[in-house]
Amino acid sequence: MTQEQTQAPSAASSGASATERFRSDKKAGASADPERVDLLAREVIGAVHDTIRRHKVTYDEYNALKSWLISVGEDGEWPLFLDVWIEHVVEEVATEHREGNKGTIEGPYYVPDSPDQGARGSLPMRDGETGTPLVWTGKVTSTDGSPLAGAKVEVWHADNDGLYSQFAPDIPEWNLRASFTTDENGDFEITTIRPAPYQIPTDGSCGKLIAAAGWHAWRPAHIHVKASAPGHELLTAQLYFPGDEHNEDDIASAFKPELMLDPQDAGEHQTISYDFVLDPETKAA
After folding, report:
1. How far apart are CA 25 and CA 22, in angstroms?
2. Compositional bias (Low complexity) at which positions (predicted)?
């Protein structure tokens, strides 16, 4: 299939896909302890009360918020809202104990069970896939430096138009999505294309918040990855490219300097080298 300009998904369709994916992949609330629910709910609601008192929120402002919250649900945008404005803090707290690589948010566009390409291979692409070809070499090790053979490296990212397969129409199911299994030395090599930056959907309730607050909707270009190995903690990360104007003001606040790549020109393609160090599960807090 030859790549053609694909229409960006609407907020409603993207939200519906993200909601369906979340419900099929995650066990929402399965481990919620009643005492923790009581503590956290009281503190979150209390923080809202404090904000209302401190800023003398009016009934007009309260009713605007109430209307907006209703619209977020009607538009199916709760996954987008939570992933963009809340998840990065949950990730920060959940991984602060780690000695290995820094991670960041998963985001709404992860799909499990992508096709395995072995230790060296390419992400599935359309004929004529546009974008700068990119060859990534790396290694997966434990915190003691030992290589992790058979580690799994899942990779997914947007195309050259900033669109994700399975969330935008008319893109093959596994386009720019694949898994890799490290060799006996923990090494892998991945061929793909350099992704483009993109705006999160702005035609729904989240877009209304962005417009009302005078924010921008851009995410810098990035490659998503999950690295895992038996007996080690799962690492979820996004890898970024130097020079992107929105690295420092990412709408999702997911950028970290430790996740910056260093692309090198190699003729008609670029090369990157990035390794992963995974924490043994015994180090979990």
Report:
1. 5
2. 8-18
